[in-house]
Specification:
The protein is α+β, with helices and mostly antiparallel strands. Helix content is 44%, strand content 27%.
């Protein structure tokens, strides 16, 4: 299953909800959401900086990842950016493949 890093930023309303619920309740809600599309959460960390939350997990496909992103954004409580993660072995496979490419201006 594809692995993703979700970088989440809370809106004012989302931050207020986090203050009311706490971090462990939020992690449980995120795990339920990911599991509802057939995925699993591997790690969940709150952070300081441009993003408030980082989640690493797997979902069956890009459509499931898009479902999570749309539901999160539609709530108005948070905005999520999805990053597809590759293992070192997957990168080795990419390096072994070739593609026809012409650099701009070449």
């Amino acid at each position: 299953m594809p692995r993703y890093l979700w970088q989440v930023s809370y809106s004012v309303e989302g931050a207020q909800g986090l203050l009311a619920e706490g971090g462990t309740a939020r992690r449980a809600a995120i795990a339920r959401m990911v599991e509802s599309v057939g995925g699993t959460v591997e790690a969940c960390y709150f952070g300081l900086g441009a993003h408030d939350l980082f989640v690493i997990g797997t979902v069956p496909d890009d459509v499931a990842a898009a479902t999570l992103a749309l539901q999160t954004t539609a709530s108005g409580a948070a905005r999520s950016e999805s990053v597809t993660l590759l293992t070192p072995e997957q990168l080795d496979e990419a390096v072994a493949r070739s593609a026809e490419y012409r650099a701009p201006g070449a």
